[in-house]
Amino acid sequence: MQRRIFATLLGAAALPAFGIVRAQSLADKPAVIRIGFPNAGTGGRPVPTGSYPASADQLGEINQEFKADGIRIEWKYYAGAGPALNEAYANGLLDFCFGHGDLPLIVGRATGLKHKIILSSGRFGPTYFVVPSGSSAKTVADLKGKKIATFKGTATQLQVARWFARHGFEEKDFRVISLNNDDTKAALATGDIDGTVISPFDLEARGIARRIAETPADDPDITTPGSVWVAEDFEQRYPQIVQRVVTRLIRVAEWGTKEENRDKQFQLWARAGSTPFGDLKTQWKATTDLRNRVNPLLDEYYLAALQRSIKETRDFKLIRREVPLEGWVEPKYLNVALKELKLEDYWPQFDAKGNIKTKAA
Questions:
Q1: How far is CA 126 from CA 214, 250, 293, 330, 357, in A?
Q2: Residues 6+ positions from 114 with CB-CB distance below 8 Å
Q3: When you count CB atoms within 10 A of the terminal residue's CB, does the N or C end of the chain come out lower?
Q4: Domain 128-214 fold
Q5: Tell me, which fold does domain 2-123+221-358 have in CATH?
Q6: What is the pLDDT of residues 261-275, one digit of tens each?
């Protein structure tokens, strides 16, 4: 079944850009394009971080794309993360999301939200299991029965569950509570929690916390690719606009893979305040080819990772029905952009297990 899914979705690369070029009379241009991020900077500041779509915002690329058309770009940042973004979309407040994590993306789809996945917003990256600096714990096993924080309803919830599974545990073996990123850092400082999955470097530098376990940057199993989506009704009405958004994002993604732009990109992301510049350099140090992580492709790895997350979400009884990939993942805009920009072979493609299948040119 999975092979049929992969063949159907990936095979779209060989098809013409069905429906992208339409007569302009079918749809007027929108007065505004509303774009949401499932994150905000420290203290709720309106600054996204950690992905090439975030760079597109901070560089003003999308605004510039539509400036001559008189189309206003409305940016929205949700400190309540993926669940808050789902609520906003359900209330008709968004046209695009620039980087939804797997769990809220799946829950939204399962509860009837109609959107089309058009890009991956990035993949891989190290994760760290962290405890207060005064903790005696040396392994995840030492935390059994203890209080573990995660932001429930977000991608981090599944990451924590995967950490438990990797060490032979289930969520029921711990006392799992929900805290956002800022509150989690505060709880580590006061010792009100016993562990969490979070970036540790600034916390370690201030003597607040220390890591007891970590994964390598290219671990394909703990993290899952983020997703860029467009509202179905917007996509049906304005396919040319969707194509322009995707093509501009691919340009920014290419910019973000250039080694000479590595520090510039991290400086943009550090403006959010949630992860300092030095921490970003450390987290990405092992990534010698930025194309492995700043990767927009909807390849076999993306599809398999999303399918796995759907299964986990059902197993944890967070959704009650299946969420098929057919009709949800739409690669045609990506394929047109790659061809137009002559980047068809620029990014490496990964297989379902997270290994490079086709090397970058």
A1: 7, 24, 11, 28, 21
A2: 231, 232, 233
A3: N
A4: D-Maltodextrin-Binding Protein; domain 2 (3.40.190)
A5: D-Maltodextrin-Binding Protein; domain 2 (3.40.190)
A6: 999 999 999 999 989
